[in-house]
Amino acid sequence: MSDLTRLHAHEMASRLRAGDVSSRELTDRHLDAAEAGNRALNAWLSIDRDRALGEADAADTRIAEARRTGAAALGDLAPLTGIPVALKDLVSLQGGQCTAGSRILEGYRAPYDAHITERLRMAGAVILGKTNMDEFAMGSSTEHSAYGPTANPWDLERVPGGSSGGSAAAVAAYHSPLSIGTDTGGSIRQPAALCGIVGLKPTYGRVSRYGIVAFASSLDQIGPFARDSRDAAALLHAIAGRDDRDSTSSPVPVPDALLRLPASDDEAAASVKGKRLGLPREYFVAGMEPGVEARVREAVAALEAAGAIVEEVSLPHTDYGLATYYIVAPAEASANLARYDGIRFGPRLGDGDVLSNYLATRGQGFGVEVKRRIMLGTYALSAGYYDAYYLKAQKVRTLIKGDFDALWAQGFDALVAPTSPTVAFRFGAKMADPVAMYLSDACTLPVNMAGLPGISIPCGLSDGLPVGLQFIGAPWSEAELFGLSRAYEAITADAPWRGVEPADLAASITPGSSTPAERAAIPATA
Amino acid sequence: MATLSRSDVEHVAHLARLGLTDEELTRLEGQLNHILDQYAILAGLATDDIPPTAQTIELENILREDIVRPSLPAAAVLANAPARQGEFIVVPSILDER
């Protein structure tokens, strides 16, 4: 294959070890692709060529050393040695920017590495740069970035989903084989679905959030994007595990099975035989596009044909998820975002007394969606309303979690559902109505409320745009979810849609193309 | 459930230390009420006997070893401050007397 950017990370790993390619070559090609496509896509907020090539050279030195030493040393090389990865721009990378998509962090330089940044370095990965996102991860389209929206490589007039839209678009457009996102209500799975790639939200507590810009601390998780299950599982393996700097990170062991998903399609497909999957009827929501429902039902039929046992199940409190989430998440955000006060970092606006500094810095530094959520959260927590909103929502959260627990108690291996009720939508389609935007996450946010792992994988196209299939599992069942997604990949390995590349890939690298901001023309009042 | 008036919106903005324009306050009044309407669905659900869930994994009393570790160097922390003097961050005075 002539184009190195089309390789999966596990293929890159084999070639690096065989000496067929260097990390410098891989890194250079991906940087070229990212730089060529970024005007049209705006997937990246920063690309650091010099640092990335330095890391690539260091990886090449380690690989050369191992090759001289012998097969055992090659086997001992860290799994991601020499392989490019992108970070969502809310992950601290020492000395690098970390805007969280907000003006209020403009100019901020992270004084330390996040835990997952340290882990990626230990795993040998080469960090290419930082990707675009909805401001403070609040949004489902990446249109709420202060640095302009990201476009979807499948259709440059459409959104990539969000909030981790830059990370998803970068992987879909072959700028990087791997990227990191965060998921508070669907912000990994929904953009993975809309961009036609794999994205997993781990169990709450699986990955340390130390060094990540916080949004809603009882919901936030960090997870991987990739173009297949094996790559995403390897990336999760690299970042997961206990860290004493995040007291919510769990000591539950990270299974090495994540590094051993079957390479053989026959073996992978056979593993689904006898698996008991629940199909939650409430996830086929009103407003779901017929093409999305059709692809998901076809995928379920394919799993059944391969030997899975699929039963329709009920998650009776699903309809309460949206309201519950939009109390809990803004309430926690309003507390977390109190730290952005213009005192210790970021621009300080206003003059005179400290109150005028606060009002100006926060009023002008935050964008419309962030202000809306801070207002909602502050109200829900304010005197006289706490019981009616926040406490009520936490009680409903117990019911939502209980729905899932009941199914695990009945012995279901996983649930299978749509990821998003729609394919990628046009810029501006949901900007005027916050509630319409919030509905994009109707099928993903209950999973966060219950702290469960969920994965989205591509399951075909509707009107030429990707559709996502979601598997939801019991706590700590990420390896089982990857087993199912790998099985589905094997079952559909020969499906015609698997060979279809994002339709606007060529347009995205056309010199002089328009920017997403120009195409979107987002009204300032949205 | 409650309806937010313009003065409620102004009060919440003050609590949140958000300096909002008149136009923003007007728009938020409509949008917040529209969102609060969505919350009404919760009122119909009986939850008197349901304990709240604050966090979904049952970790308790997580303590770390009491070991002295280096903190970030002061210079690295101060580098991001918008106003500083020596080893201090400069802030407006918060007391009347100067």
Please bin the fraction of helical residues of chain A: 25-40%
Please report which band the strand proportion of chain B falls in: under 5%, 5-15%, 15-25%, 25-35%, 35-45% or over 45%: under 5%
Report the major sheet of chain B. Answer: 2 strands, antiparallel
Q: Structural class of the secondary elements of chain B?
A: mainly alpha
Number of helices of chain B: 3
User: Which geometry of chain A do the CA atoms define?
Assistant: globular
Task: Specify the biggest β-sheet of chain A.
Answer: 11 strands, mixed
Structure description:
The complex is a heterodimer of chains A (526) and B (98). Chain A has 526 residues and is an alpha/beta fold. Chain A has one domain (9-320, 396-499, 513-519): Amidase signature (AS) enzymes, CATH 3.90.1300. Chain A is 40% helix and 12% strand. Chain A has helices spanning 9-18, 23-41, 49-69, 71-76, 115-122, 165-172, 189-195, 229-239, 265-270, 290-305, 321-336, 354-365, 368-381, 387-409, 434-438, 445-449, 478-491, 505-508, 516-520; strands spanning 44-47, 84-88, 126-131, 178-183, 198-201, 221-226, 276-280, 309-313, 414-418, 454-462, 465-472. The radius of gyration of chain A is 22 Å and the shape is globular. Chain B contains three helices and two strands, in the order H-H-H-E-E. In chain B, strand 1 (84-85) and strand 2 form a beta hairpin. Chain B has a domain at 6-43: Histone, subunit A. By secondary structure, chain B is mainly alpha-helical. A two-stranded antiparallel ribbon of chain B has the order 1-2.
Topology record:
The complex is a heterodimer of chains A (526) and B (98).
Chain A: H1 9-18, H2 23-41, E1 44-47, H3 49-69, H4 71-76, E2 84-88, H5 115-122, E3 126-131, H6 165-172, E4 178-183, H7 189-195, E5 198-201, E6 221-226, H8 229-239, H9 265-270, E7 276-280, H10 290-305, E8 309-313, H11 321-336, H12 354-365, H13 368-381, H14 387-409, E9 414-418, H15 434-438, H16 445-449, E10 454-462, E11 465-472, H17 478-491, H18 505-508, H19 516-520
Parallel strand pairs in A: 2-3, 2-4, 7-8, 7-9
Antiparallel strand pairs in A: 1-3, 4-6, 5-6, 5-10, 9-11, 10-11
Helix pairs in contact in A: 2-3, 8-17, 11-13, 11-14
Chain B: H1 6-15, H2 22-43, H3 74-78, E1 84-85, E2 88-89
Antiparallel strand pairs in B: 1-2
